[in-house]
């Protein structure tokens, strides 16, 4: 067992990312739960800064790739090149061989290139020329995407979206936060003053501790009922997949862990439901015509599915 350093990690990251404590906490939950993060927002609100802050504070080897229409799968996974002196093909690692891979503007590249991430995000491996290689652990993908409909963008396939544990959005800062950002803009990068709080090995230990957080059967039932509600909703063509069900449970465990508990309560589930569900739901044509949003459906489901009564102690 190692010390729960969630608060120290949060405190350090929020030095660079001002006024977004709730989003920092959700991303930290996803990291502790061993998941990947998708951030969708307009340019210039700090998505890349957020990702790089996590890599600095967690002491992770990070690689960043700018996704453009001409990026090829081998640019991500690496390739084999023939070396005459060895008389054999030698693997040249791609940028994916790191702990934290920042996929910048992921929805600007082709579906063929996006598919290069499917294996590694699910299994932690890359296969090049028939040889499968494991990426370093821990391994996290933090991807940013511009809003759908922006110039040069295309929708990510459902199989890609489903591999992201959560999807979140930073949004514009409020007036008070904007003033703080201006005051802190002294010509230096906000990342320069960040100090590492844990290293990769300690992060792996934290992830193992999150896995051990206790989940009562009534919590499993609550998760299952929420998921079932998305699959049965008349305004949805596609609900949450079993992979999403697992993601919701793991995020709830991380929520409990960050809050200093070794057991999950119903609010741990409801607090992360939106981030886990929003990118997995596919609206029906009727919903789009009536301007119904995924966020609105999620709120309705949370109100309609009763939470189990809290117990004095679970576990």
Automatic annotation (TrEMBL):
Domain ATPase AAA-3 stretches: 36-166
Residue ranges of coiled coil: none
Top-level taxon of origin: Bacteria
SUPFAM superfamilies tied to this protein: P-loop containing nucleoside triphosphate hydrolases (SSF52540)
Domain ChlI/MoxR AAA lid: 229-299
InterPro entries: ATPase_AAA-3, CbbQ/NirQ/NorQ/GpvN, ChlI/MoxR_AAA_lid, P-loop_NTPase
MF term (GO), any: ATP binding
Protein name listed in UniProt: MoxR family ATPase
């Amino acid at each position: 067992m190692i010390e729960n350093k969630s608060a120290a990690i949060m405190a350090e990251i929020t030095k660079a990312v001002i006024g977004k404590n709730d989003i920092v906490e959700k991303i930290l939950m996803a990291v502790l739960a061993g998941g990947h993060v998708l951030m969708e927002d307009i340019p210039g609100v700090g998505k890349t800064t957020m990702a790089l802050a996590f890599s600095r504070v967690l002491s992770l080897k990070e690689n960043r790739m700018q996704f453009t229409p001409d990026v090829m799968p081998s640019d991500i996974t690496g390739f084999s090149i023939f070396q005459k002196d060895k008389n054999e093909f030698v693997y040249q690692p791609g940028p994916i061989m790191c702990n934290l891979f920042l996929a910048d503007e992921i929805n600007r590249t082709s579906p063929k290139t996006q598919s290069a991430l499917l294996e590694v995000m699910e299994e932690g491996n890359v296969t090049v020329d028939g040889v499968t290689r494991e990426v370093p652990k821990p391994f996290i993908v933090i991807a940013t995407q511009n809003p759908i409909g922006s110039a040069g963008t295309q929708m990510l396939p459902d199989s890609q979206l489903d591999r992201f544990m959560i999807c979140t959005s930073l949004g514009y800062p409020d007036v008070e936060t904007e003033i703080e950002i201006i005051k802190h803009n002294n010509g230096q990068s906000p990342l320069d003053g960040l100090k590492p709080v844990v290293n990769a090995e300690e992060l792996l230990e934290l992830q193992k501790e999150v896995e051990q957080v206790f989940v009562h059967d009534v919590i499993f039932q609550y998760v299952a009922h929420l998921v079932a509600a998305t699959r049965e909703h008349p305004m949805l063509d596609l609900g949450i997949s079993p992979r999403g069900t697992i993601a919701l449970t793991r995020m709830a465990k991380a929520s409990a862990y960050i809050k200093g508990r070794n057991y999950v309560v119903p609010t741990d589930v409801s607090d992360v439901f939106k981030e886990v569900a929003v990118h997995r739901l596919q609206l029906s044509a009727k919903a789009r015509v009536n301007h119904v949003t995924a966020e609105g459906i999620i709120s309705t489901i949370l109100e309609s599915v009763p939470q189990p009564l809290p117990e004095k102690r679970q576990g």
